[in-house]
Amino acid sequence: xxxxxxxxxxxxxxxxxxxxxxxxxxxxxxxxxxxxxxxxxxxxxxxxxxxxxxxxxxxxxxxxxxxxxxxxxxxxxxxxxxxxxxxxxxxxxxxxxxxxxxxxxxxxxxxxxxxxxxxxxxxxxxxxxxxxxxxxxxxxxxxxxxxxxxxxxxxxxxxxxxxxxxxxxxxxxxxxxxxxxxxxxxxxxxxxxxxxxxxxxxxxxxxxxxxxxxxxxxxxxxxxxxxxxxxxxxxxxxxxxxxxxxxxxxxxxxxxxxxxxxxxxxxxxxxxxxxxxxxxxxxxxxxxxxxxxxxxxxxxxxxxxxxxxxxxxxxxxxxxxxxxxxxxxxxxxxxxxxxxxxxxxxxxxxxxxxxxxxxxxxxxxxxxxxxxxxxxxxxxxxxxxxxxxxxxxxxxxxxxxxxx
Length: 404
Ligand SMILES: Cc1ncc(COP(=O)(O)O)c(C=O)c1O
Fold this sequence. Notes:
Oligomer: single chain
Helix content: 40-55%
Bound molecules: pyridoxal-5'-phosphate
Strand order of the largest sheet: 2-9-8-7-6-3-4-5
Number of strands: 14
Shape: globular
């Protein structure tokens, strides 16, 4: 049977993710992978979850294993609200990963042909979530401070249905929007009446500089905000939240009910039980120290090895840094040779909604060991150095750009 005639229009918009293909490659033995955006598994708080998991099963097993409300377990929503300025528990919904939050937000906001404004580059998982609703994209140019206000305004003149942004330690670039840019973005959104989806999986992983207010805090009536336990506890729990104005949260609740009824009751109760012990703040301290150390190792290895003509961001948090190659270097082509040398990364073009970005690549420093960072960056530098686009005379070094 030929199923292609039976598929819905929207299924033709479901693209396979290049990340998945690359992750397959990087599972080969001996490959040093800077490709995946996985949290460091050695730091999963297994011991801190074990006791609470047992207590939930022994003391409240019948509740934990039963169906529960679409809105989510209220004590968990209260805990999230207590740490999220600009929110209140009544308007928080628990979702099965912020990826589901993005899907639900797109489902209730976007009709086919609507325009969604995104940074170029941006998180490809968000693009894949929006694709399913048959949207078009307006791309916003970025510099070392994230989205450029003049480019935001150009996009807003074309009347987007919404803007999607990761203000803290962006995936893929690692950069953050300054307070001034956050305010400029919100002023423009107000002037052109554009709703904003703020995706913040990495904000708690700040290891340098002062925390900045979220867009939600600055403009609670205009911003739909999603956050997650994936990077601060463990992604396998599939626990995240979405919040925003009451009207939107109400329709998101109905959409979620149709999608999966509710997020797993057991993991929600487990989270409340574990968080009550207060373990998270100490755990976050550990994560921040670890990721800072990893970033420093990677920055050091890049500085020591990478040839002139290449620059990179210097993130103040999160898991990624973003490398700019000379314009004639194509990172997808480079990846093929890198994999032969047993090192992997994600080519930048995967993060550009409207094409381009061939001369960028994303490196994740989250899971590699110190040894792997040294060896892997040295191999990568070798591959870059051999590329005809780099060895060409006349390519000049550029200043490394700051993170935020
Ligand atoms: C920017 C961004 N948003 C959302 C997600 C999805 O996270 P979750 O595990 O909460 O679904 C990720 C995961 O890497 C991400 O980088």
